DNA sequence: AAAAACTACAACCGCAATTCG
DNA sequence: GCGAATTGCGGTTGTAGTTTT
């Protein structure tokens, strides 16, 4: 038996608020306050056929005094991005750091603009993703970017020696100058096997990619059997294999209980968006890996990412992720 | 000029947490 | 302590407006 609805849905208006409704709600609250009960509020306002929940949302997000809309400053951009990287999609917490901004506003701003600004998504690609989302598909991988601390709220659990990893402006990566405030204590993304790449590599693609959305494999992704390491991310360690420039980037998983999941490459979910559309395929991958049970999952299958497609120099990085820079 | 593609944002929905009787 | 009511939150959707083809 489900819960009783908060209001009589047949008798409440939905959709955009009219100026008259706004005026009624605003006027009432300014005179009488909310009375501490949003559900009961609309019944006290003559002619307002809205549910309490809708009134609350309208007031908090639009009508209450000192709300700012649009025109986010660069400083606000930085704060939002920095906090998102640190705490994920805790919009209410982020909003608390930005006076006059609502969580809804920040969420919309992030979803429609900042995210693209950061990840440099192209219109077409974004649209494809949006459509996929609306079909109830995919985007689990993007969603997995949320709440990097979800599975591990104790910040002290993060690997102490690596806690200062911050997202870099890629142009600044040359100089190892962190773009985001250095004091940010950020959760680690997945890290690669240090020994498998030249230590002198000035910019390691995979390590950097991991900073742009490496994900925690939460329960909803079906990886709940994974042994999470101390940083809240499971152990998924991409390593380089092969010898030619065509060598394939594969992913190996250390201390990983793979029960039921045979394709370790899927642990790249959450990073695929950094690659071109053509990487995404459906069906078997043609490389002898049984994608069988994965095909119907909400997470699309991806071709192995070829090393040649990954930027390995600062120049290539900047070219590929030119839009990454906020400034 | 029209259609398609895309963006931006308000609002809704469902769920979890909190409060209340 | 328990269950219902309410609140708060984050994800998602609807759609008007804008830009591109």
Automatic annotation (TrEMBL):
- Compositional bias (Polar residues) spans? 130-142
Under SUPFAM superfamilies, the record lists: Homeodomain-like
Q: Which Pfam families match?
A: Myb_DNA-binding
Localization annotation: Nucleus
Region feature Disordered, mapped onto this chain: 119-142, 181-226
**Compositionally biased residues, Basic residues:** 119-129
Give all residue intervals belonging to the HTH myb-type domain.
9-63, 64-118
Q: What is its main location?
A: nucleus
For this protein, the record's InterPro entries field holds: Homeodomain-like_sf (IPR009057), Myb_dom (IPR017930), SANT/Myb (IPR001005)
One Gene Ontology molecular-function label: DNA binding
Instruction: Give the GO cellular component terms, alphabetically.
Output: nucleus
Keyword set, alphabetical order: DNA-binding, Nucleus, Repeat, Transcription, Transcription regulation
Look up the domain of life of the source.
Eukaryota
Q: Which SMART domains match?
A: SANT (SM00717)
Q: What is this protein called?
A: Transcription factor RAX3-like isoform X1
* Name of the gene encoding the protein in the UniProt record: LOC111462761
